[in-house]
Amino acid sequence: MKRTMRILFLIMILCVQNLWAQTESLKPEAVFGMYFDTFVKQDERALQQLNDYLTPFLGAENTYTIDLNKSFKDEVKNLTGNFLANLPKETAAGCEAETEEYFRALLSNLKNTQYAVKSMKEVKNEYADHSFVAELNVDLSFPVPAKIAEIKLEEVKKMKDLRNYLKSKTKAFRQSEKQTTVQQKFKLYQVKKDGNIYYWNGGPQELVWKLNELYFNNLSR
Questions:
Q1: What is the DSSP string of 146-185?
Q2: What is the pLDDT of residues 9-45, one digit of tens each?
Q3: Among candidates 115, 119, 114, 116, which has minimal Cα distance to 136?
Q4: By the 8 A CB rule, do 138 and 121 touch?
Q5: What is the dihedral of CA 219, 173, 147, 39, to 10 degrees?
Q6: Contact indicator for 115, 141 with CB cutoff of 8 Å
Q7: Which pTM was predicted?
């Protein structure tokens, strides 16, 4: 009898735990963290966690299918190609590897961006009744060299030793000693389903675009 009661008691505990897991809602700050770790830090584990969170109310077919490693490599290649396309052919051919390493170091600093949520407020969603939008004001801090100096194309075209110049710039970014902090606003839209409240952002790329813009603007000062 005691053994049966013990088993029933354990089953009740498990049922309560499962019910709690189903009804517990993540706060906007935690959801933002998953978006940030996925699309800025390009963390594969965070991507899986984000998709697991989104599936119950968006459906698996509407989650994110992206190869983060490939995405990073493609971005490095695109920047490298655009840079070299503006140089004389001989010059470009002689420093392709160094250019790629430069942009890899530069973008790696972006992946090392840290964030701090400074404030959060909920405002009415003008596109949906009885729904809110969580607006988060976030401080984003990324590493930069002590002496910030973006490579200027007009100056590069005149250089006789571009390879060593690029190597020195790459080293400077890899040894970035400073932290630059910028502010950004990020919106999460509230969705109610099955008694739960969820938050999502249909265009997380905006987070990356804004951060990239702020980052490169700081380098060109």
A1: SS--PPPHHHHTT-S-HHHHHHHHHHHHHT--EEEEEEEE
A2: 444 444 434 433 443 579 999 999 999 999 999 999 9
A3: 119
A4: no
A5: 40
A6: yes
A7: 0.83
Q: Please state, in angstroms and rounded to a whole number, the distance separating the CA atoms of residues 207 and 40.
A: 8
The count of other CB atoms within 10 Å of the CB of residue 109 is: 18
Cβ proximity of 82 and 106 under 8 Å: no
Instruction: State the average pLDDT over residues 168-186.
Output: 92
Residue 169: both structure tokens together: 């710039």
Token readout for 148 is 């910030």
- Rounded to an integer, what is the distance from CA 19 to the centroid of its chain? 32
Amino acid in the structure at residue 173: F
**pLDDT tens profile 187-205:** 999 999 988 999 999 777 7
Residue 119, Cβ density class (10 Å: 0-12 exposed, 13-18 middle, ≥19 buried):
exposed
**From residue 58, how far is each of 23, 28, 51, 202 by CA, in Å?**
16, 17, 9, 11
Number of neighbouring beta carbons within 10 Å of residue 111: 13
Rounded average pLDDT over 147-163 = 77
Neighbours of 51 (CB within 10 A): 17
- Indicate the pairing of strand 114-124 with strand 196-200: unpaired
Q: Please provide the distance, in angstroms rounded to a whole number, between the alpha carbons at the two ends of the chain.
A: 77
**What sign has the CA pseudo-torsion 156, 157, 158, 164?**
positive
